[in-house]
């Protein structure tokens, strides 16, 4: 199933590894440092329109890619039919 993540962007939900709330993960660290540590600093697509709410991690052809969107992590999870813990 494909999931709309903002603007005109959709991703395949089968490729999603994690849906992360940016506000929660950036309380102690900078988002750039987090992305560098995960190894996706060169593979980030930002569709947030300067309102960063969610970081979505996807694995495509053995490459890790990150998407930053202005849609909440709970909404993205609902669109993927997964539970939020």
In short:
By secondary structure, the protein is α+β, with helices and mostly antiparallel strands. It contains three helices and six strands; from the N terminus they run βββααβββα.
How does the overall form come out from the CA principal axes?
Answer: globular
Rg measurement, Å: 12 Å
Q: What class, by secondary structure content?
A: alpha+beta
Beta strand count: 6
**Distinct helical segment count:** 3
User: What does the main sheet amount to?
Assistant: 4 strands, mixed
Tell me what portion of residues adopts beta-strand conformation.
35-45%
What is the string of SSEs from the N terminus onward?
Answer: EEEHHEEEH
End-to-end separation: 22 Å
Mean of all residue-level pLDDT scores? 88
């Amino acid at each position: 199933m494909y999931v709309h993540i903002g603007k005109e962007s959709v991703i395949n939900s089968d490729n999603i590894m994690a849906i992360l709330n940016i506000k929660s993960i950036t309380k102690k660290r900078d988002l750039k440092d987090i992305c560098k540590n995960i190894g996706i600093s060169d593979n980030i697509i930002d569709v947030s329109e300067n309102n960063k709410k969610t970081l979505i991690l996807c694995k495509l052809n053995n490459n890790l890619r990150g998407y930053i969107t202005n849609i909440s992590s709970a909404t993205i999870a609902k669109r993927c039919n997964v539970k939020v813990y």
